[in-house]
Amino acid sequence: MHLAYPAVLAVLLFSIGLYGVLGRRNAILVLMSVELMLNAVNLNLVAFDVWLRDTLHAGQALTLFTITIAAAEIGIGLAIVLLVYRNRGSSDVDRLTDLAENGLAGTGPAGAGSTPDAAADEKAEATA
Amino acid sequence: MTLTTLAALVPILPFLGAAAGLLLGRRAPGFVRPLAVLPTAAAFVLAAVVAVRQGSGAPTDAATRLTPTGSVPIDLALHLDGFAVLIAVLVGLVATCVQLYSTAYLRDDPRYPSYAALVSLFTAAMFLVVYSGDLMVLLVGWEIMGICSYFLVGHYWETEVARAASMKAFLVTKLGDVPFIIGVFALATDAGTFRINGILTAATHGQLQHPTIVALLLLAGVAGKSAQFPLHTWLPDAMAGPTPVSALIHAATMVAAGIYLVARLLPVFTASAAALVVLAVMAAVTMIGSGLAALAQDDIKRVLAYSTIGQLGYMAGALAVGDRSAAVFHLLSHGAFKALLFLGAGVVIHAAGTNSLSAMSRMGDLGKRAPDAMWTMGIALAALAALPPFSGFFSKESVLRAAEHASGGHTDGVPSAVGWTVLAAGLITAVLTAGYATRLFLLAFRGSGPRAADHGREPAIMNAVLWVLAVPSVAFGMIALVPSVFDLPKWFDGTELTPTLLTSVLGIGLALVGVLVTYGAWTAGAARRSAAPLGAIGADSGAEPAEAEATAIAAHTAVYGDIASSDDPADPGRLLLGRLHRHAASGFHLDAVYTALFVRPVLAAANLVRFLDREVVETYVRGAGAAPRLLGAAVRRAQTGNVQTYLSALLAGAVVLAVLVAVGA
């Protein structure tokens, strides 16, 4: 099989994922899009591993790592999204904007980021 | 013990006493009085032993290298000669008397422990100055005295007068000390050593490169410490401190340090005729001005303060004509009788409940109520007025004799004009001194009018101290000059100190003129005195003496309108001075001149600096801050809080980088 097929598939997957991360508002869908991007990378790794006939199969080994880490990541990420949803009644990425510069007038320190909620948001956004 | 050990113990004992007094003052109140009196008394005894053992022999020197400084080394050096040991005895005597007197005078004072410790520390510092053979070590004692003086003058810091006076005393003496320390460094650089002996050797061999500058710089410090014109203004105000402090610091010891220093370094000064001329003019102005001012003061202690300034002027005059023996002779006799006068004034103020001479002159029985003070102060005032046979006569005559000698051009290195200046000023001051001494005595003890409120007997210890000090006031002059008994000249440089006929006749005659004129003015004012009643302040009679005095000083301005004078039409000083009285009472407006010349410009400069700092410098700082702040406000607008926006920006950046890399490759 020619390398172009898996490569094009990976590009498509990555682009879909990118669109999801940048365009979707639901935090869970954003997480799913991140998975798509990761898997696009995995596909590339495996395809190039075969194409280069790597005797150590470094690409496949790295793919296994990525899958493991992605599983852990999605577990934590979903847990955070769950907590955020419980606390705020919403998992809308657009509305989790507590770190924004309040009022934008620019005198004194911004009031955000000091409450426990805001700390949770911070994590959620970092993960998302 | 060797002589050196004994001499080293003299300053150490009061120092340890001061340290112990400060540490134990609160915890063991019973030890405070012994700790104040005993070390000082022991130091006095040791100083006397040192004096006897040193005698009139060759100077004793001992030194240990304190620290290698890399350039001019500093030695912990002792130098004992006739001048040092005799002045140390005087310091010990006065300090012991003052400590004894203070136990009664400040008996109920809550701050007595720290007061006594500071007096001990002060005594130790003065001993250090007297015995030191190294200018740097001397400077240490010199500065300790300055700070002790500041604390002790401000003993009643609750009153505005005392706070202002202590600050003034400190600032004015420091003003002199700054040039002084520069002078010391210049001197040591020229001579290559801080040791006084080395400096004197260099000076006599003409190795000093800038004798005039060095001498003038040193003179500034001496003028500040010894209260010579134009830096004398702190001394009258320093009378806001307790009377024993005035007696110890501002009469007998601290002000003597300046004179003593010049006496020790006299060859440095005689190396420069200009310095001698400056010293002589300074002394002459000080003598005459302080004599006139003393005649106009109403506060008994301010009279004594101005008389101290005048007598120090005599000593400075003697130094200007190159005769340090006469200067130190006068310093010794003056130290004894002036301490007596101040301590007596403390008794009088307590007995009268006021420090105003005008008020005392309207009390009938002050002389009877404080007979010890009257007799001893009479003796001391006679010594001050230089009436024979009291000690002041002999010492003042020795000064006049030296001046007369120099005026004839017989003293090497001293211009005859200097001699004439000192002689003329000394003779004029003799009249004035006799005048104000007589005025003080008549107003204080020969008043007429209703009896003052009786305060009971004065504490016995206070009266006893007065009699102790009366002994040297009477006898020191006579004894010192009898060759078979004491032979003072042999202890000193060997210069003749006996009065000569010409100056004695002149001096006695002028003193008598002063006494008689003042007496006449006093008699002439008697009718007016009874016609013009004047309220006394009347401090609380049951209080300890120090408190009565503090009340009297604090109330003087309120009652009489001025701290220095009162509106007494019968005051002999007012009658004699006429229109000059107003100016003399305020010290010839020197304080006002200083306010106009220095205080106001300094305050204006401070205001200018504040304006420059607040309005000009800070504007630039704020301007520098404004641009980043605006920029920051603009950048902060991008912080929307929406993660997806950030990620889009990140992606855009990554794409741009990738494209750039691709194009570059």
How many DSSP H or I helices of chain A?
A: 4
State mean pLDDT of chain B (0 to 100 scale). Answer: 85
CATH topology description of chain A: Helix Hairpins
Helix content of chain B: over 70%
Mean of all residue-level pLDDT scores of chain A: 82
pLDDT < 50 runs, ≥5 residues of chain A? 104-116
Largest interface: A-B, 18 and 14 residues
Describe the structure.
Helix content of chain A is 69%, strand content 0%. Chain A has helices at 4-23, 27-51, 58-88, 116-127. Chain A has 128 residues and is mainly alpha-helical. The two termini of chain A are 35 Å apart. Chain A has one domain: Helix Hairpins (Orthogonal Bundle). Chain B has 665 residues and is an all-alpha fold. Among the domains of chain B are: 272-448 and 458-588, no CATH class; 590-664, no CATH class. Helices cover 74% and strands 2% of the residues of chain B. The longest helix of chain B is centred in the C-terminal third of the chain and has 47 residues, at 590-636. The mean pLDDT of chain B is 85. Chains A and B meet through helix 1 of A and helix 28 and helix 29 of B.
Describe the secondary structure blueprint for this structure.
The complex is a heterodimer of chains A (about 130) and B (about 675).
Chain A: H1 4-23, H2 27-51, H3 58-88, H4 116-127
Helix pairs in contact in A: 1-2, 2-3, 3-4
Chain B: H1 3-24, H2 32-54, E1 60-67, E2 74-80, H3 82-105, H4 112-131, H5 135-153, H6 160-191, H7 196-204, H8 211-225, H9 234-237, H10 243-252, H11 254-264, H12 266-270, H13 273-296, H14 300-320, H15 324-352, H16 357-360, H17 366-369, H18 371-384, H19 391-407, H20 416-445, H21 460-481, H22 488-491, H23 501-524, H24 526-531, H25 545-560, H26 572-577, H27 581-585, H28 590-636, H29 643-664
Antiparallel strand pairs in B: 1-2
